[in-house]
């Protein structure tokens, strides 16, 4: 293939989306961008730092210095046929990767070299990903590389990238070739490396060996005093360095005038100075080589545009020098591990050790959250309050907790999304092994200070994201802790059948009513042992309920009798449960206590409630509601994950040709496709529209009916008229010439339009609608529901995010409340759900392949026992939206929503 003329390209003018901050395998960062002519001096300095061995491996010879002619070739490229990326750490180039197109064809030679001190950090694989993405944009399809056989590290980069690499060796030189189109294996490799790097960066944050408190104060009213006090009170296992230029010691610990004066390495710097002083603090931290900056100071993005500008500048500078940032406006981070004991927060106490990780955006709520967890008997493994989330976000924590052996349960308090598409991917993977419970605030409003720094996601998108990812969504912090107590202390149920045991019929009935309302099944009628039953009789009833094979979970409701202390009954319950070990979850309404009372607790070696403890709730409704969320999660986890399915007969390349043709000359505008173009595009994905013709006279209508085959339907071309009740009569089955002629004349008179649709009558069926809607930050959602005004008013639609598995498609069809009409409600013959599911998967494939499809509606689809028939479709095309979770690995741009 011939390349375009690039001779007049500006070597400074590269695609700005190619520039990125990237995270390396050790958790550090570098800045990646295309090379420009002014990098010449940096390239010379970089080359001068390379060892003789590294230069020999790269240039197949000594090559002690770069000749002027080569320097110009290395630094001046056209960003199309000749592309080069430099990796920058501060002002220093630490790696270079480049490709050059071969003979104007679809192949290019690729090569890269990494500074000796930065080898082993994953820079080679990062450069290869970004070069491959740039090459694909420039029309290239294949990379070739010449590598010395003894250069094992470079050979490994190509071998482990997930591409199908062919190898030939001649005189000690390996000739490698591979197609650069992403494969399932190459995408999996990139995701795995992304996960490892992001988890490592959070590990660095939560396991520091040294912490500097910049702004440590002797004034108890200052946050610098509080932060230092909390670190010392928690008995941090590492070294604490107060930084205060005015005092030789703070709280009895030697202080240093600045962070650069500290004699040892600093892993974490906690910044507690006014916002206007943070920039000067950053300079010292960069010079010191601090790994992570934790900024508890406020006055940044939450304070307005000037604060936002300062925040973006701060994070950009930190990342460029290899540092990650938590905050600003953060409460802090903590790790209860006995070998760490880190309390780098403004909360006064290190929580009890547990196996629950907690991420919170709000610094203001953080202290209350920690106090509530302690009061309820919920121990934590780690806690991060990220404030403005200028850099480190909840997605980073999900990556860490997935592989953290100390965390079994993840709790999230989210006020907004930064990258919802990535969140869905990570949460879905994590929830398969560890429950994720989330409060998503801002359901009906978003705080003004978050509006400029957060991605807007509509409610249907959020709900679809959570349901598909298996995230347990709750509405309040109280519900979050109610649910967490079950997950933290009790096993998952095998099914939805619950037994109820208590000493009050009234409370037992309340529990039963709530269970039915939540879709749970009663294993038997509630058991009432009576108010006079002894603790032993009460425990015997519990044992009998747990022993029943019909019981998957147990609810205990108890009102303390006047004559006997309730503690005796609580101890009897705990002993019965521990003794039986039936692996069935138990919740209780006991002693009017909220949390885990001592009498119901099974204590760890640290003396805190652990697995086997029975949570108690002030009311039976709260107990059952918490259990119901756990039951639904367990059912989600038991379902097959499904497979990403692409039905047969898809023609993606042909569809892209059509899309490009239809968008050419539109200059970024959206365009509603004509019916003929809709049929062409859908046809590329095997979606057939019931045949139709557009006519402009009664004679044409009759001829169309004869061509299509009677019976037919007639409808107005003007979409605005199609829903009018007075047109319903002319859209009935028309089986004769006279009927068609009369219907055409009636419709023309009513609509005032000569153009009318004549369409072959599809088999009678239930009218359904499948749609696509695009959320600018979340991606594409597929929706399904039954057509009609009632379904629309009730909002009876189900949603799934693209891409879809076969399980996603199947559950999508069964989720609307009206879906029983498709499965034989009241004895009707069921519709062909397999045919409907096939259309859903084809729609999802179309959306995934063609992001230019901004919306689509197939309405109606007539679902019958004979199949599913699309009678009408509407498609809108437009410029493809940015997808924050596609392409080569990169950190979220610092000017993007957080």
UniProtKB/TrEMBL annotation:
Keywords noted in UniProt: ATP-binding, Nucleotide-binding, Transferase
Span of domain ATP-grasp: 679-724
Transferase in keyword set: yes
SUPFAM superfamilies, sorted: Acyl-CoA N-acyltransferases (Nat), Glutathione synthetase ATP-binding domain-like, NAD(P)-binding Rossmann-fold domains, Succinyl-CoA synthetase domains
GO molecular function annotation: acyltransferase activity, transferring groups other than amino-acyl groups; ATP binding; metal ion binding
Keyword presence, Transferase: yes
InterPro entries in UniProt: Acyl_CoA_acyltransferase, ATP-grasp, ATP_grasp_subdomain_1, CoA-bd, GNAT_dom, NAD(P)-bd_dom_sf, Succ_CoA_lig_flav_dom, Succinyl-CoA_synth-like
UniProt xrefs under CDD domains: NAT_SF
Domain spans labelled N-acetyltransferase: 30-185
Protein name: Acyl-CoA synthetase (NDP forming)/RimJ/RimL family protein N-acetyltransferase
């Amino acid at each position: 293939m011939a390349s375009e003329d690039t001779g007049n390209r500006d070597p400074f003018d590269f695609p700005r989306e190619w520039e990125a901050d990237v995270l390396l395998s050790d958790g550090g960062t570098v800045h990646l961008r295309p090379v420009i002519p002014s990098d010449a001096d940096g390239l010379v300095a970089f080359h001068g730092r390379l060892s003789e061995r590294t230069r020999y491996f790269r240039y197949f010879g000594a090559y002690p210095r770069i000749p002027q002619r080569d320097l110009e070739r290395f630094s001046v490229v056209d960003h199309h046929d000749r592309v080069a990326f430099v990796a920058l750490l501060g002002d220093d180039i630490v790696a270079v990767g480049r490709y050059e197109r071969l003979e104007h064809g679809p192949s290019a030679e690729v090569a890269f070299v990494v500074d000796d001190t930065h080898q082993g950090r994953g820079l080679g694989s990062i450069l290869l990903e970004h070069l491959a993405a740039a090459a694909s944009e420039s029309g290239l399809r294949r990379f070739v590389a010449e590598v010395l056989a003894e250069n094992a590290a470079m050979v490994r980069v190509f071998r482990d990238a997930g591409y199908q690499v062919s190898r030939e060796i001649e005189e000690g030189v390996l000739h490698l070739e591979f197609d650069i189109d992403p494969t399932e294996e190459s995408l999996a490799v990139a995701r795995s490396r992304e996960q490892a790097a992001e988890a490592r960066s959070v590990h660095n944050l939560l396991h520091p060996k040294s912490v500097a408190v910049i702004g440590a104060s002797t004034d108890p009213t200052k946050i610098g005093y509080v932060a230092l006090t909390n670190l010392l009170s928690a008995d941090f296992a590492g070294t604490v360095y107060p930084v205060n230029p005015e005092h030789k010691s703070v709280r009895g610990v030697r202080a240093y005038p600045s962070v650069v004066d500290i004699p040892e390495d600093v892993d974490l710097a906690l910044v507690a100075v006014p916002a206007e002083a943070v920039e000067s603090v950053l300079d010292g931290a960069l010079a010191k080589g601090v790994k992570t900056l934790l900024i508890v100071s406020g006055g940044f993005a939450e304070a307005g545009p000037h604060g936002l500008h300062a925040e973006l500048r701060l994070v950009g500078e930190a990342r460029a020098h290899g540092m990650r940032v938590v905050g600003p406006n953060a409460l802090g981070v903590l790790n209860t591990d006995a070998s760490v004991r880190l309390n780098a927060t403004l909360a006064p106490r290190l929580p009890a050790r547990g196996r629950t990780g907690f991420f919170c955006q709000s610094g203001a709520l953080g202290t209350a959250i920690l106090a509530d967890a302690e009061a309820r008997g919920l121990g934590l493994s780690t806690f991060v309050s990220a404030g403005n989330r200028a850099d480190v976000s909840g997605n980073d924590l999900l990556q860490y907790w997935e592989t953290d052996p100390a965390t079994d349960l993840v709790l999230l308090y989210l006020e907004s999304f930064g990258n919802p598409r990535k969140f869905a991917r990570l949460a879905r993977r994590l929830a398969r092994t560890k429950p994720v419970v989330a409060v998503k605030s801002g359901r009906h409003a978003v705080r003004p200070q978050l509006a400029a720094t957060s991605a807007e996601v509509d409610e249907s998108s959020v709900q679809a994201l959570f349901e598909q990812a298996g995230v347990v969504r709750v509405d309040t912090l109280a519900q979050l802790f109610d649910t967490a107590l079950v997950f933290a202390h009790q096993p998952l149920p095998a099914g939805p059948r619950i037994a109820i045991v208590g000493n009050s019929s009234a409370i037992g009935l309340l529990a039963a009513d709530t269970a039915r309302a939540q879709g749970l099944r009663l294993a038997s009628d509630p058991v009432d042992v009576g108010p006079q039953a002894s603790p032993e009789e009460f425990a015997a009833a519990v044992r009998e309920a747990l022993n029943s094979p019909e019981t998957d979970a147990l609810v205990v409701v108890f009102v303390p009798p006047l004559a006997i202390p309730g503690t005796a009954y609580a101890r009897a319950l705990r002993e019965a449960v521990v003794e039986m070990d039936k692996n069935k979850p138990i919740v209780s309404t006991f002693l009017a206590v909220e949390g885990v009372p001592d009498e119901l607790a099974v204590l760890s070696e640290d003396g805190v409630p652990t697995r086997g403890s029975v949570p108690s709730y002030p009311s039976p409704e709260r107990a059952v509601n918490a259990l119901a969320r756990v039951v639904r999660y367990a059912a989600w986890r038991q379902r097959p994950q499904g497979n990403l399915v692409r039905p047969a007969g898809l023609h993606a390349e042909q569809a892209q040709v059509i899309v490009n043709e239809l968008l050419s000359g539109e200059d970024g505008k959206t365009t509603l496709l004509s019916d003929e173009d809709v049929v062409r595009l859908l046809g590329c994905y095997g979606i057939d529209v019931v045949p139709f013709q557009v006519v402009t006279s009664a004679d044409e209508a009759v001829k169309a009916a004869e061509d299509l085959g009677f019976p037919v339907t007639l409808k107005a071309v003007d979409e605005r008229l199609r829903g009018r009740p007075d047109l319903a009569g002319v859209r009935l089955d028309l089986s004769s010439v006279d009927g068609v002629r009369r219907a055409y004349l009636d419709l023309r008179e009513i609509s005032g339009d000569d153009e009318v649709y004549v369409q072959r009558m599809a088999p009678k069926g239930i009218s359904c609608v499948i749609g696509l809607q695009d959320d600018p930050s979340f991606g594409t959602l597929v929706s399904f529901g039954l057509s009609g005004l009632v379904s629309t008013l009730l909002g009876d639609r189900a949603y799934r995010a693209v891409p879809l598995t076969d399980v996603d498609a199947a559950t999508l069809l069964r989720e609307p409340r009206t879906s029983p009409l498709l499965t034989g409600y009241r004895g009707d013959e069921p519709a062909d759900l397999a045919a409907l599911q096939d259309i859903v998967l084809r729609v999802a494939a179309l959306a995934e392949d063609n992001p230019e499809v901004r919306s689509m509606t197939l309405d109606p689809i007539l679902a019958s026992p004979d199949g599913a028939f699309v009678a009408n479709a509407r498609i809108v095309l437009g410029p493809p939206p940015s997808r924050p979770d596609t392409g080569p690995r990169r950190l979220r741009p610092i000017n993007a929503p957080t």
